[in-house]
Amino acid sequence: MTEPGSTTVEIFGREYKIRGVANSDYIKTVARYVDEKMKEVSQSSALPSQDRLAVLTALNIADELFQQREASSAGLSTIERKAESLISLLDEGLSSEG
């Protein structure tokens, strides 16, 4: 099992020490994403407090996640329907050969 490490990142002008087993580059990539989202939210809001900014950013990121899950689920349903259709066609073709 991998031992937890520590990575220092900067998000919205503040440094945070993140402890975890994830790769340091991955942690930095995630932190950069959060930093970018916080900057986007701060530009579209009238100077919200740090707490409010963090919550609004978290809501935006959660919304992206939920939309992605929904799109992924819809894509899987389409794939499942097509696979079932192909299986039926194969079954019909094999039964007509027999």
Describe this structure in a few short sentences.
The protein is of the alpha+beta class and 98 residues long. The protein has helices spanning 24-44, 50-97, and strands at residues 5-11, 14-20. Helix 1 packs across helix 2.
Describe this structure in words.
This protein is elongated. The chain has two helices and two strands, in the order E-E-H-H. 4% of the residues are buried. The N and C termini lie far apart (54 Å). By secondary structure, it is α+β, with helices and mostly antiparallel strands. The longest helix is centred in the C-terminal third of the chain and has 48 residues, at 50-97. It has helices at 24-44, 50-97, and strands spanning 5-11, 14-20.
**What does the largest sheet look like?**
2 strands, antiparallel
Point out poorly predicted stretches: none
Number of domains: 1
**Which radius of gyration do the C-alpha atoms yield?**
23 Å
Secondary-structure element series? EEHH
Shape: elongated
N-to-C span = 54 Å
- Please give the number of β-strands: 2
Helix content: over 70%
- How many distinct helices? 2
What structural class do you assign from the helix and strand content?
A: alpha+beta
How much beta, percentage-wise? 5-15%
Any descriptors?
two-stranded antiparallel sheet; 98 residues; elongated; alpha+beta
